[in-house]
Amino acid sequence: MIRVPQELEAEWNALTRSTVDLIPEEEFLERLQAARKNRTPLRVKYGVDPSAPDLHLGHTVPIRKLKQFQDFGHQVIFLIGDFTARIGDPTGKSETRKRLTKEQVDSNARTYLEQIFKLLDEAKTQVVYNSTWLEKMTFSDVIELSSKYTVARMLEREDYKKRFKDEKPIYVHEFLYPLMQGYDSIALRSDVEIGGTDQKFNILVARELQREYGQSPQIILTLPILIGTDGMNKMSKSLNNYIGITEPPQEIFGKAMSIPDRLMADYLELTLGYAPDEVAGLMRSVEQGKLHPRDLKARLARELVATYHSATAAKAAEEEFNRVFRERDIPTDIQETTLRCEDAKLWIVKLLVQAGFAKSNREARKLITAGAVCLNTEKITDQDYEVSTGQHVLKVGKRRFLRVTVT
RNA sequence: GGAGGGGUUCCCGAGUGGCUAAAGGGAACAGACUGUAAAUCUGUCGCCGGACGGCUUCGGAGGUUCGAAUCCUCCCCCCUCCA
């Protein structure tokens, strides 16, 4: 354990909280001390790939950390990896990511920034694009850069090591990615780089490269990867297990309520910034039966809505949620539509299709057979059912409602 | 350049002439139970039709056959090893 001077304790505790790696710890402390003494804020780098413009809670984990740095007066540098995005990051998944055009990248970046400033202080954030320096590099610059790192060291990365061992291909340009990211750190002269644990290797490479280029190597600070609502995989848009920060209150609340219980502790800590001992205390209450897990999760859901919308919206979302899912009542605010019918009756299958709940008659039939269709709180199991004229409330599945008037 | 292996429905993966819209698993969707949790159980799971019928799938194009994912020919793509 290292000894933290009293005057730095608050800062130290806040910045190191909920981190996975902090390398090297002593050096971080020294830099914090120097920063304070010389009144020169640390340059804290965080890079993103602007390929998907919608931010979700997973992204907010490192961003919250940046905010903490910002609050302690450090310089946050938000790096948009526009150059990287235009080439397509090969990491992980087999399918090569689509290359983005300059226009797409620009537009994504704008959306991205709009969203991060919900959490970060815009005036105190420096936004940079890595094409600024990477695009200008010549082939000799690239060779110069590649000569600073060895294949053996590249193969230390778990992902590469495994593929190498399994005789799976590793493309040469994949080796270039960590180098490019490392060069970003050199160009920015960063003191600290933040990232998810999946970025640990790349951030470490940057450290070595900085040393080679005569800079003092950056501190590495990694944060846990947030698991998505499916309880299995990293939160991501493509897996559709995400909670987007621009989603409507009702959605955020509902999705938060649907996460597995075992994720609650992580979410409290990582998405709301609860202190680890507070989380531990809450979880203990749950285990001892003093606190119902549902209530704790509702608190989580409420606070998330409050963060990205407002306390009022949170309250409303919770009331609506209880109304629909606990009391199995119909929502207060449901869409309405009017459908015409031929002879005073409308076939249920047609109704479902016309209402937009099924793309075809077959799909509609499937829903009916599955018992997913309710008309005025009554379950419809007969495929030949005919709906009479008048107003009805149609429910499909657990959460799709529609007020239909048949004329 | 040489040798070998392989491309099957969202994913993994069986299937080597008809019983195959294609096993099994996963994912997904729906139902029961519940706390929109977990676990479990059940159903659906190529597309279309007021449904006993039709249409389209097994890398692509041709061919053999009454009949092909399965056999033949050519082509495309991927992987491994040797150089």
Q: Secondary-structure blueprint of this entry?
A:
Elements: H1 9-16, E1 21-23, H2 25-38, E2 43-48, H3 57-71, E3 75-80, H4 82-87, H5 102-116, E4 125-129, H6 131-134, H7 139-146, H8 151-154, H9 158-165, H10 172-188, E5 192-196, H11 200-212, E6 219-223, H12 249-257, H13 264-272, H14 276-287, H15 293-308, H16 311-326, E7 336-339, E8 345-347, H17 348-354, H18 361-369, E9 373-375, E10 378-379, E11 386-388, E12 390-396, E13 400-406
Parallel strand pairs: 2-3, 2-5, 3-4, 5-6, 7-13
Antiparallel strand pairs: 1-6, 8-11, 9-10, 9-12, 12-13
Helix pairs in contact: 10-11, 12-15, 12-16, 13-15, 15-16, 17-18
The protein binds one RNA strand of 83 nucleotides through α12, α15, α16 and α18.
Determine the CATH superfamily of the largest domain.
Answer: HUPs
Number of strands: 13
Structural class category: alpha/beta
CATH class of the largest domain: Alpha Beta
Low-confidence residue ranges:
90-97
Instruction: Give the CATH architecture of the largest domain.
Output: 3-Layer(aba) Sandwich
Radius of gyration: 26 Å
Q: Can you list the strand order of the major beta sheet?
A: 1-6-5-2-3-4
CATH fold descriptor of the largest domain: Rossmann fold
Beta fraction: 5-15%
Helix % is 40-55%
Query: What gross morphology would you assign?
Result: elongated
- Note the total helix count: 18
Q: What can be said about the biggest beta sheet?
A: 6 strands, mixed
Our count of domains comes out at 3
What's the mean pLDDT score? 88
N- to C-terminal distance: 76 Å
What this model shows, in words?
The chain is of the alpha/beta class. The chain has three domains: 6-223, Rossmann fold, CATH 3.40.50.620; 249-326, no CATH class; 336-406, Structural Genomics Hypothetical 15.5 Kd Protein In mrcA-pckA Intergenic Region, Chain A. 47% of the residues lie in helices and 14% in strands. It contains 18 helices and 13 strands. The chain has helices spanning 9-16, 25-38, 57-71, 82-87, 102-116, 131-134, 139-146, 151-154, 158-165, 172-188, 200-212, 249-257, 264-272, 276-287, 293-308, 311-326, 348-354, 361-369; strands at 21-23, 43-48, 75-80, 125-129, 192-196, 219-223, 336-339, 345-347, 373-375, 378-379, 386-388, 390-396, 400-406. The strands form three sheets. Strands 1-6-5-2-3-4 form a six-stranded mixed β-sheet, with helices on both faces. The protein has a five-stranded mixed β-sheet with strand order 7-13-12-9-10, with no helix packed on it. α15 (293-308) crosses α16 (311-326). The protein is elongated and about 85 Å long. The chain binds one RNA strand of 83 nucleotides through residues 167-169, 230-231, 254-255, 257-264, 292-295, 297-298, 321, 324-326, 347, 349-350, 360-362, 365-367, 369-372, 383-384, 397-399.
